Amino acid sequence: MKKIVVLIVAAAIVFGALNFHFIFLGKNLKVLKKTTMTFEDTFIDARGSKKFNLLLKPALVEAGIKDLF
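Now predict its structure.
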């Protein structure tokens, strides 16, 4: 039974990583839906001057990162 629960939790984590961008903005954590299923740019630190570099990534622009700033 424990193995089934662990597999379900692992599958949920992989599903979340493939379908969502998790963006850390200091005190807040924002979640954006990805346009394609990839592991690229899943966890993003957007504190300070790093915000401007994020606007250069096409996958994040398509997901709507401009609306967060």
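Strands lie at 20-25, 28-33, 43-45.
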